[in-house]
Amino acid sequence: MRILFVCLGNICRSPLAEVIARAEAEQRGLDTWHIASAGTGDWHVGQGADRRSLAVARKHGLDLSRHVARQVTAEEMEDWDWFVAMDRSNRADLLAMGADPARVLLMRQFDPSGELDVPDPYYGGEDGFELAYRLLRENAGRLLDYLASYGR
Ligand code: 4NP
Fold first, then answer.
1. Whose CA is nearest to atom 7 of ligand 1?
2. N or C: which end of the chain has fewer CB within 10 A?
3. Which of 86, 89, 15 is nearest to 57 (CA)?
4. Does residue 85 sit in helix, strand or coil?
5. Which of 15, 119, 26, 28 is nearest to 58 (CA)?
6. Structural domains in the chain plus CATH codes
């Protein structure tokens, strides 16, 4: 199973989603799953994670220090079983790039609140990063459970 978490810059939300989902997958014995992240934009390609994401990850026992931001391309639409977009704008960008709509999920697809987007914390304060962490942690397990049972 190959899953790509996607946001805009690949420095704030999707790198966090990647390490959280990997931890949740390991907990479920799904450690053969390939989990990665990328951004739809190219502004931060080659850079590490935003220092505020690094800090919130560290606070919760996760290491983002080896992250290198990458841009998702139209050439890799067939390479992934699932794309998980952080918000509806990221999903629209993936669909415009040719992703199969049946293979694009929203990070908050199964959030009981009915909210669909993980708000972009880039231009806000530290609390936006803590909120992003909480939303990602709450929803990663739900998503993985769905994907693990898909097709069974
Ligand atoms: P991300 O946050 O999509 O969660 O990585 C952003 C990072 C950078 C920018 C926007 C959002 N930016 O405009 O540079």
1. 9
2. C
3. 15
4. strand
5. 15
6. 2-150 (3.40.50.2300)
At 136, the amino acid letter reads L
Query: Catalytic positions, please?
Result: 7, 13, 120
Measured in degrees and rounded to the nearest 5, phi and psi for residue 3 equal -125, 130
Segment 47-56, tens digit of pLDDT: 999 999 999 9
Which residue type occupies 99?
A
pLDDT tens for residues 90-114? 999 999 999 999 999 999 999 999 9
Question: What sections of 28-120 are H helices per DSSP?
Answer: 51-59, 88-96
Reported residue count of the chain is 152
Report CA Rg, the chain: 14
CA of 120 to the centre of ligand 1 (A): 7
Residue nearest to atom 3 of ligand 1 (CA): 8
CB-ligand 1 contact for 8 (6 Å cutoff): yes
